[in-house]
Amino acid sequence: xxxxxxxxxxxxxxxxxxxxxxxxxxxxxxxxxxxxxxxxxxxxxxxxxxxxxxxxxxxxxxxxxxxxxxxxxxxxxxxxxxxxxxxxxxxxxxxxxxxxxxxxxxxxxxxxxxxxxxxxxxxxxxxxxxxxxxxxxxxxxxxxxxxxxxxxxxxxxxxxxxxxxxxxxxxxxxxxxxxxxxxxxxxxxxxxxxxxxxxxxxxxxxxxxxxxxxxxxxxxxxxxxxxxxxxxxxxxxxxxxxxxxxxxxxxxxxxxxxxxxxxxxxxxxxxxxxxxxxxxxxxxxxxxxxxxxxxxxxxxxxxxxxxxxxxxxxxxxxxxxxxxxxxxxxxxxxxxxxxxxxxxxxxxxxxxxxxxxxxxxxxxxxxxxxxxxxxxxxxxxxxxxxxxxxxxxxxxxxxxxxxxxxxxxxxxxxxxxxxxxxxxxxxxxxxxxxxxxxxxxxxxxxxxxxxxxxxxxxxxxxxxxxxxxxxxxxxxxxxxxxxxxxxxxxxxxxxxxxxxxxxxxxxxxxxxxxxxxxxxxxxxxxxxxxxxxxxxxxxxxxxxxxxxxxxxxxxxxxxxxxxxxxxxxxxxxxxxxxxxxxxxxxxxxxxxxxxxxxxxxxxxxxxxxxxxxxxxxxxxxxxxxxxxxxxxxxxxxxxxxxxxxxxxxxxxxxxxxx
Length: 658
Fold this sequence. Notes:
The structure is a single chain. With 658 residues, the chain is mostly helical. Among the domains are: 1-152, Serine Threonine Protein Phosphatase 5, Tetratricopeptide repeat, CATH 1.25.40.10; 587-658, Arc Repressor Mutant, subunit A (Orthogonal Bundle). Helix content is 83%, strand content 0%. The protein has 31 helices and no strands. It has helices at residues 5-9, 20-29, 35-49, 54-70, 74-90, 94-110, 114-130, 134-151, 154-170, 174-190, 194-210, 214-231, 234-250, 254-271, 276-288, 294-311, 314-330, 334-351, 354-370, 374-391, 394-411, 414-459, 462-496, 501-548, 554-568, 572-586, 590-597, 603-613, 618-625, 629-643, 651-655. Helix 3 (35-49) runs antiparallel to helix 4 (54-70) and helix 10 (174-190) runs antiparallel to helix 11. The longest helix is centred in the C-terminal third of the chain and has 48 residues, at 501-548. The chain starts with a helix and ends with a helix.
């Protein structure tokens, strides 16, 4: 689950004047205006209309830019380009938005306007984020963060942490996302900003919800609602109610979920919020879908679709069409279902949403299978498998394999049917055991312990950092010693009180199995932890480097340099050596079997095989190998060729055989 586009737009930093009175006032002044004043009015109107009428806002921004260029008003040229970028953003054309915002940024850099540089950098980062270009997004969001730190603007620093948290949320790095959210939370508390703090609490709640930790999700969601009730912001309160309803729905408490969805709908309707109403209607319809009552479901879905179409919200309309299509499919109205889901596929293809294409292709394949059009079935299912495998969408990939297994069974090809069934089963076993368990474990430990550590690292002096490290090592040593003593005592007690040698042997066997299982979990989490530590050290070196600019004392400067050199001596090879040691303890014959079957594999190929054997996805492999996404994907393609794998076979599933 991703946070909706509506929520991303809500944190776009440009503040649009939505009041109709402002628009009317500017439109009255426009006919009599000239020169610079006219350009400023055009920019103001484009800003005010950016969320209401994007086509008109775009036209006004372009007109403003032409006039500013002809008048050689450089600063107004930058503002005009900025407004064009905003209009494209709210039109969901995020690449175009980034293009015009970067032109605006270049002008602000020439003008040495650091405030606007920071603001535009942040907005470019958000545009790339929505376009799923995470590397580019991170570059610009980090630029904005550094600028706001230099400017000493706490509120904007908190914005940066919020947006970086959103970035890592989209990258499925939930522990890092929560760390940024927590740092933003502390700032909002210090500057007494309840509005943004309430929104942030909601994001934390949604992150816990995604991870399946519903008790914490409810806690933070209710806390968010309490803060919103204090500040009397109806639209924000409705968003909170909507999210609480979604959590209760997952918990199976449909009555509570329906109550909160209806509260949200009532507020959206009172506020005339045409963006929020369809979302609440769709959520209410989803509750009725569980009662096997298509008329009630379609009533709410179609009402949602009508409003989305009326206001031109193509994103919400496409999602609702997909939901309607699934309702018709469920009730065997296949021709109608086909039309709606094909509409969703066309929209996803238009905006380049590969995840949506994979899901829509899967559902279309299932429909064509029921219609006994097996040629179309195979075409769509193969497309779903290809995209789901490349994007690491394991649940979708599992379902596509299961559907292909059923198709081959219908065709009488039992061999391929069995093969696809096995691939589906393997994915089913690994989805939650590896990815979810690893994410939850990392998130829990980091969110509870790293909050204080991260703040201290940024705020404490170098000597305090050294003391904290020493204290931490002492504590860990004591804990390990105590654990060792307890383990020895417990083992002695078990041996002494064993009823028989047979019972003791059975107990030791169980402990050995538990140890192996623990080693597997430990290997998965320690691999990411080691890479995070190196990332952390690098960021620490950068932060310490910033401090040197403010140090006048030579002795202190030398001390800082010594600390930096110590940190730089850390070696990523040590991480890999430790990984290989633990990996071979668990998978003793993996390397031998792999070399016997494929003697032509290089050292890097073998390393990649080991990481894939652990169930790590592309993003996680990037963090361990310090490569970018493109390099890892290229390495995966080369490896597939060396292993002579067919397109329909998942690389990760294949390596589980060794």
